[in-house]
Structures are given as structure tokens and as C-alpha cells.
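Input (structure):
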């Protein structure tokens, strides 16, 4: 008989990964499938809820086709999904509108009103509450008709188990933290948002239902297996890389990017990502879209590789950019191609190369773009130090970007920290969610044990010989947006 496992789904912005993880915490197999993002405009970005479910079904069947994993011994299903998406549903569980995903920025006016009421810099246009207010104010028929408003995780749990629940890491209406619950109610009242339109709260490790007969046929799984509460990708990745205890930090480099740091729960924060009923993740986003910015740079500068998968192109070019000296010969790049993220930059920001001269090649430009993301990380690390003065010696890094050794070394040198890349860095979100499911099954005492299971693939030590060059460039980078803001606002606001 095959080894017992849980199926964990990492639902990213462009790809869904299905990962079979044994009850002892080992990856038995994986598969992935892509799906569409709908760019209606620069600010209006959506995805079809049905695409989430059909892709989950498709990637499940692909997993079973590509491996010898037995569907009959699956012990449970759990989802780790992108954050801050909203899906209005009618009483029959039918979506009334496509999902306004985390990249959607149509609610800037609502975010400004919330900031005027609750404090500058608390809300940005991609957050839950501004988008909920936008929905009520601009699509009142949809808002009035909707029975429940779900996030991506909640929607997939509904499709699998037929129940409406929101886990603590992805909830925007209530909280297990009493003071935060009161604060959330104040926000809802200010936005004239009906708290009854939101699902019940659950823990990430809770069993919230069981795979229904109809969903079992679509998934190719047995009916009746548990469906767990799950988590958002910020929490899932923190658990998956073993950085889920107080004072631990990680960096994610995928379609989006961020720096996170675990702190005690802050009752009056809306920018922190809840981890559980005790802890938050101090979340510092890098920008609107890190992955697409680097991919655009790759495709624009190296059109001869257009027909090759992005991963293969990186394999070729990473070897070549190893020859580019740190600092890319004083070429500075700002990777804001798809807009910035408050408070450091605004959504009006765009990509920039500064100090470009005839000596620079395509490889210099590509290297500068990667180093520019490292400078964004350093800005956020400065914010972290100002807020909490952490005693960090190292950072765990996960996501597709962690596979690029030139980038990781630049990060270690820019941040002056040891960079740890786990062996399963690409599957960290799925692993983190799986640990929650194993906790719910009683196979793991709690998800904090994830750190003990972490296998390190590579370690990048900071090189003091590069510090002076990177410090010099960083001094210019950190004032770059301030210098260019009037131009961005004139062109893009």
C-alpha cells in the first residue's frame, strides 16, 4: 500500500501546485498547472473563481498521472492561497462577480478615506476593506444580492466541502484576538459593510468539512476525507520555511515579493498578516509584481529565448551574469514596472534604469534589476529595524527567485545577512499548509515543529568586500522614488 499523505495546494497568482506530502512530512510527488489572470486595465485585475476549481481538479489528476501515488490513501485536503482576494457569492454558492485579486488596485479612493479615518498608511488600494467598499459603492446590485463574501481559500474549501469558513490567516471581518475583533468591527461600520455577509472563523488546522460526493468525482479522490482550514500564502510560507516563531523572518520571491517577521499579535494593525491567535507576521511587501517585472526584463532584453520556458532561460543567463561585478558597473534599476506599494512607493511608480551608459550590456541591465529588488528588500529591512530592532543574523528565502545563485549572493551582500535557501523552497507554501493539516490529524504536535524538519539546500554568506559598493548604490536608490515622484504622478496618476 502507498504511504499515507495529505494533498496540499499552493494557489499562486499564475500557477497552482498540487503536492502530496506524507504524514511524516516528506514530499511524495507534485504537479502544477497554470491559469489565467484577466488584466482589464492597469488597476482592474481579476480571476475567474471557476478557474481556481477547475485548475485544482486538473492539477490533481495530473499529479496522479505523473506519479504512483494512490488516491485511495489520501488523508486530507488543504489549500494555501494568495491573499486579499474577494469573491461575492449568492445563496446557492454561485459567484456573482470574478475575484478581485491582490493585484487589483481599483479601490484607491476608498483606501484614502480609510486612511483619513484610521491613520495614514494603514490601508492600500489592494487590501480587503477598500475593495469591499468599492464593491458596495460601485456594484450595489452585486453587493446586495451576495449571501457571503469569500477569499480564495474560502472559495476552494466551499467547492471541496460545501461549507463556508474563513481561516484566521485570511480573515477580514473578525479575529480570535478580542481587541482586533473590535477594531475590525469599527472598519466594517465605517465602510457600511454587513458583517453577516462573511463566513465563520476557523483555525488553519481545523477540519471544516469533508470532500463531498460531487467534488470527489471531480478531484478523483474518495468522498468523506477531511478538508482543513488552510492558510494564506504569507502564513503558509513562514511555516514551510521554519520561520514561524517570534523573531524569525523570511523572504518570498515569486509573482509578488515580501519580507516578513513574526511578532506578537497587534490588535490595531491591518497591515500585519495574522499567523494564529497569538502571533502576527509583520508583512512588508516589495511591490505590485516582482515576478512579472523580472520576466518582462528577461523577455525584453533577450528575445532570442522567447520560445523557451522562463526557468530554462534563467538557467542559461544565471551562469552569464555571474561574470557581472557587484553593482553592475554603477547601473541602478528600479523594478516598479507594475507599480509600487505604499508607504515607500505609490501605484503610480514605474520601472527605471538610472546611469545607463554605452559600456552597459543586457547582462548589466538584468543584473541591475535583480539588485534593485535587493535594494527594495533593504528598504523594508530598514523599516523592520525602525519598528522592532530585530536581532537578525539570517533570512530564509523561498519562491522561484531563490533558485538564482547570483541573486541570492547579491541579497546576502546587500542586506549583510546570511541567506538560507531550503531544499524544498519552491514548495514551501504547500509544505506549510500540509504541516497545519498534519497538526489537525494529530500527526504533528504543532506547526512550529516545521523548523525541525527543514532541510537546507544552500547557504550564502555576505561578502564584506562588496559592502561599500552596495552601500553607495543604496544611498541613491532609497531617494530615487522621492526624486521621481512628481514625474510619476504627472504621467500615471
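Output (sequence):
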Amino acid at each position: 500500500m502507498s504511504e499515507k499523505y495529505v494533498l496540499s495546494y499552493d494557489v499562486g497568482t499564475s500557477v497552482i501546485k498540487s503536492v502530496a506530502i506524507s504524514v511524516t512530512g516528506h514530499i511524495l510527488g507534485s504537479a502544477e498547472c497554470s491559469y489565467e489572470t484577466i488584466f482589464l486595465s492597469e488597476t482592474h485585475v481579476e480571476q475567474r473563481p471557476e478557474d481556481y476549481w477547475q485548475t485544482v481538479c486538473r492539477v490533481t489528476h495530473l499529479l496522479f498521472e505523473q506519479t504512483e501515488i494512490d488516491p485511495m490513501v489520501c488523508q486530507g485536503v488543504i489549500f494555501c492561497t494568495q491573499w486579499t482576494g474577494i469573491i461575492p457569492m449568492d445563496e446557492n454558492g454561485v459567484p456573482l462577480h470574478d475575484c478581485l485579486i491582490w493585484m487589483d488596485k481599483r479601490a484607491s479612493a476608498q483606501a484614502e478615506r480609510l486612511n483619513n479615518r484610521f491613520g495614514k498608511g494603514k490601508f492600500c488600494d489592494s487590501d480587503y476593506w477598500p475593495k469591499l467598499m468599492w464593491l458596495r459603492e460601485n456594484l450595489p446590485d452585486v453587493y446586495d444580492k451576495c449571501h457571503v463574501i469569500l477569499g480564495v481559500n474560502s472559495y476552494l474549501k466551499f467547492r471541496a466541502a460545501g461549507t463556508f469558513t474563513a481561516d484566521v490567516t485570511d480573515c477580514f471581518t473578525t479575529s480570535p484576538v478580542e481587541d482586533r475583533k473590535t477594531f475590525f468591527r469599527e472598519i466594517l461600520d465605517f465602510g457600511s459593510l454587513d458583517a453577516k455577509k462573511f463566513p465563520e472563523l476557523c483555525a488553519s488546522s481545523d477540519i471544516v468539512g469533508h470532500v463531498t460526493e460531487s467534488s470527489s468525482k471531480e478531484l478523483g479522490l474518495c468522498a468523506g476525507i477531511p478538508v482543513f482550514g488552510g492558510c494564506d500564502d504569507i502564513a503558509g510560507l513562514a511555516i514551510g520555511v521554519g520561520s514561524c516563531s517570534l523573531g524569525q523572518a523570511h523572504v518570498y520571491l515569486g509573482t509578488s515579493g515580501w519580507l516578513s517577521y513574526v511578532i506578537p499579535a497587534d490588535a490595531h494593525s491591518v497591515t500585519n498578516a495574522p499567523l494564529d491567535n497569538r502571533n502576527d507576521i509583520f508583512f512588508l511587501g516589495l511591490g505590485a509584481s516582482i515576478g512579472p517585472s523580472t520576466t518582462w526584463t528577461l523577455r525584453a532584453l533577450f528575445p532570442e529565448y522567447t520560445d523557451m520556458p522562463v526557468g530554462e532561460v534563467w538557467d542559461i543567463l544565471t551562469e552569464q551574469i555571474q561574470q557581472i561585478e557587484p553593482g553592475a558597473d554603477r547601473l541602478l534599476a528600479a523594478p516598479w514596472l507594475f507599480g509600487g506599494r505604499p508607504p515607500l512607493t505609490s501605484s503610480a511608480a514605474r520601472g527605471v534604469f538610472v546611469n545607463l551608459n554605452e559600456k552597459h550590456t543586457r547582462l548589466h541591465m538584468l543584473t541591475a534589476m535583480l539588485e534593485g529588488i535587493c535594494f527594495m528588500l533593504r528598504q523594508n529591512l530598514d523599516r523592520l529595524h525602525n519598528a522592532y530592532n530585530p536581532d537578525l543574523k539570517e533570512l530564509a528565502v523561498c519562491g522561484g527567485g531563490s533558485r538564482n545563485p547570483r541573486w541570492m549572493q547579491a541579497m546576502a551582500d546587500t542586506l549583510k545577512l546570511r541567506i538560507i535557501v531550503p531544499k524544498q523552497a519552491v514548495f514551501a507554501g504547500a509544505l506549510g499548509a500540509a504541516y497545519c493539516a498534519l497538526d489537525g490529524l494529530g500527526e504533528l504536535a504543532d506547526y512550529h515543529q516545521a523548523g525541525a524538519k527543514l532541510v537546507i539546500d544552500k547557504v550564502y554568506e555576505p561578502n564584506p568586500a562588496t559592502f561599500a559598493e552596495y552601500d553607495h548604490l543604496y544611498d541613491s536608490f532609497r531617494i530615487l522614488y522621492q526624486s521621481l515622484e512628481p514625474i510619476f504622478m504627472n504621467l500615471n496618476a
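Notes: The longest strand covers residues 15-22. The chain has a mean pLDDT of 91.
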